[in-house]
Structure formats: C-alpha cells, structure tokens
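Q: What structure does this chain adopt?
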Amino acid sequence: MEKINPPELEQEIGLLCYKSRTDGIGGKIKQLPEDFIVEEITEDGAVLEAVGYGDVPEVAVEIPCSSGENPPAGEFLHFTLQKNNWDTMRAMKEISKRLGVSRNRLSFAGTKDKRAVTVQRASAWNIKEEDLEKVNIKDIQLREFSYSNDRIDLGDLQGNRFAITIRNLDLDADSIKNIIDSITDELKAGFPNFFGVQRFGTTRPITHLVGKEILKGNPKEAAMLYLTKTYPDEPEETREAREFLRKTEDFKESIKKFPRNLGYELSMLNHLIQNPDDFPGALKSLPKKLGMMFVHAYQSYIFNLALSRYITEGFDIERLPLPGHETELDEITEEILSAEKISREDFRIKGMREFSSKGMYRECFIPFENFRIMDIEEDDLNEGSRKATIVFSLGKGSYATTLLREFMKNRYWS
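A:
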C-alpha cells in the first residue's frame, strides 16, 4: 500500500507518518464550537455532561452539591464550568473579575479547547456559593456547587470524553463508516502519542524553532526569529511589521507598526528599546510559561521525529524521551539530536537557566476507549456533503486531534 504523506505543516513539526494505512475520510472539524464537545471525566470516573448539546450517550453522574440544610464545610468551593467558545484561562480571568478577587483564587484540573463546548470541574478559594451563583457571563454556565477542604489542581482528572462532528465529507455514508471501522481496527493497540499542531501553533508554527536557537546559545537569533518570521496565514499588517523589523532592526520604529493585539511582541520590543542588545532579557520579558514553551516545543519536535522513525521502520517502542540534561537517550533520538547539533548538556541553558530542562519520558502509543459512530447524515452547513459524529474517551494529557488525524489524513485544523 502506498505511503500516505501528512500535510506539509505537520511534517515541519516532525509528524512524518501515520500509524494506520487506510486512506482517511477528509473533512473539517470545529466549523461550529458545538462540533467539538469535551466532557471531563473526574478522578472517580464521573463524566461531566454538557447540558443542551446533542445526543451524547448519558452516564449516570452524581456531583455532590451543597444543601441549604447543612452548613458549608471546607474553604474551597467546587463547581462545574461549562463554556462555549471560551479559552479556559480567559474564562477564569473573567469569572474572577466578576467576583472582584484575584485570578489565583480559582483553579482547575485541565485546560480545555477554546473553539468547543467544554465541561470541567474547578474550585474557588474562600468564595461563597451565592456569590458565584450570581456570576452571569455569556456562553458560560456555572453549576453543581459543593464545598471541600481540597483545591482542584492541574492533573486532578481521569481524562475526557469527546463528541466530535467531522463536516464537509465527500464520501457516501457506507464508505465513511467502512473507513472509520478499518482505521479503528488498525489502531486497536493504540494511536501514536504525537504532539499535534496546537503544541506549535497552527497559524505560526515557530515555537520549536525559537527553542532550538535558545538551546544553541543564540538569544538574538531566537528573539528575532520570534519577532520577525512571517507566515502566509497572518494578517498583512502583521507580516509587514515583522518584515520591516527584520530588514531594519529598528525597534523604536517597529513598535509603531506592530498591531496592538500582539502583546508579547510589544513587550519584547519595549525591552529592546530600553536595552538594545539584551536579547536574553527580551525573551525573559515574556510570561515564564511561554518562555518555557519554546524549549518544550523543541523537545516535542524531537519526540515527534523519533516516534515517526520508529513507526516508519516498523520497530515497537513503549516510551521515548523528551530530551533534557538528565534523560537517557535511545539510539534514534541520539541520532536526531546529533544531526541537529544539540547535546543533552545544551538543555542546561547558560544565561537563561529558568528555561533549562531535565527532560522526561512520554508513552508512545495511547489507547482510546468507548469509541462509537453516533451518526452519519447530510451536512447542514456544507451543501452536498455529509457529516459524521464520533464519540470516544481519552486519558488525561492525550489530544483528540492526534487521534482524529489518523481518521482524516488532511489539514483537519484549517
């Protein structure tokens, strides 16, 4: 069977193959937020069901709620957050703003997709139930309140259940079902645990390239790459501003041209206006999590390349390193890093030690459970096409889009 090549952008981030060999069904996801429903599975196995969307199979769920008959116990108020087309961090920021408290008093178990309908548990420290009940934000629901002595932290979940509608399918219903069934069978031992395009940026997949320059000890190249590299899907005004800076390296003039919504770039430019040669400082002016993301993205890129090699060459592998200065390297990862001219010791980043990484290990193949095709019918948004809705569950830390790419085998994110 002829090899199916992934889209160019996926290849740029190290996704060089698929595990399944059956042609995909194509199509598009997230044409509407409700096409992508994410329901958190709590640590005790309860599925937090989305209210008012679709016909997802019901699971009997009892979320303990506070009662007016009993006084509240515990300093943390737990609640269910359902949001439609809201970024998780922005939703939390808006809720804390309405409450008039610090964002740090709110916490959650896992970040969820923005263009989606998502449901998750969250907690608020030292907040009264009646105050949270009064919060009224468009496309956000808060419900199922209960008090606890424990804060909900990142990772405090079992996984997520997904109900995903794939639209704009040009195949007939039987063909769609047969292809999905065939690929499901091919992936019964698990699907590749790649890092998908969202890890690197769909509009501007640059984070791993910046990370590589940081590791090579080139802070100027890293900063200028982040500021000036252009991509065709960016607005024309943004591309022109980046190109002007690339040609002139005039920070004072460039800051006048950069769009106001590019807050990270503006922060770096402000630093460079005051300190023209302090490129490490410009990178450190970014939020720490973003700065760390550059190195993490490069580690993810190396993992993707290595796992692609193992799959292509037909070798079994259980886990691979996200390389760092304390990880042991397998032969293929070592070969890749050698070709990249990066050593383990480079992950101890001189002058920017806060970006350093010990590394860790990641499972290579992930199971998916309770998979079923909910429906295949005419697509009400794309005349003459069909849509298919599938439901499945994944453990925490796994991305639905990494499974979907096996079924679709196209630029599913466009």
